[in-house]
Amino acid sequence: MDDWLSLIQWPAFLASITAAWLVASKERQRRNAGFWVFLLSNVLWLIWGFHTSAWGLVALQFSLGALNIRGLFKTEGAAGADA
User: Fold this and answer.
1) pTM (predicted TM-score)
2) In the chain, how long is the greatest CA-to-CA distance?
3) Residue 46: closest CA among 76, 16, 75, 17
């Protein structure tokens, strides 16, 4: 189990990079998807952070998760403006 948890940092890394690419898109749907992928990366980083006792990373991911939720609501709220 420890080996599996140690490897979770790599999917978390990939999700973070993919999310950043999506959020930078000019298309609202891609930006919206990016915030969901960012939330997935937050969860993966939280799991890894708890496993390694990286408390600064855990605090960062809770904070970034809150900002990603804010971005998700702002992107979804803008749906009417794009239509």
Assistant:
1) 0.85
2) 48
3) 16
Domain segments of the chain as ranges: 2-78
User: What tens digit of pLDDT does each residue of 53-72 get?
Assistant: 999 999 999 999 999 999 88
C-alpha distance from residue 41 to each of 9, 31, 82 (Å): 9, 15, 27
Could you give the CA distance from residue 49 to residue 36 in angstroms, rounded to a whole number? 20
- The arithmetic mean of pLDDT across residues 26-43, rounded, is 94
> Are the C-beta atoms of residues 16 and 40 closer than 8 Å to each other?
no
3-state DSSP assignment of residue 59: helix
The proportion of the chain whose per-residue pLDDT surpasses 90, expressed as a percent, equals 76
Sign for the pseudo-dihedral over CA of 51, 56, 62, 68: negative
Residue 75: its pLDDT value, please?
80
Residue of 49, 42, 50, 44 whose CA lies nearest to 70: 42
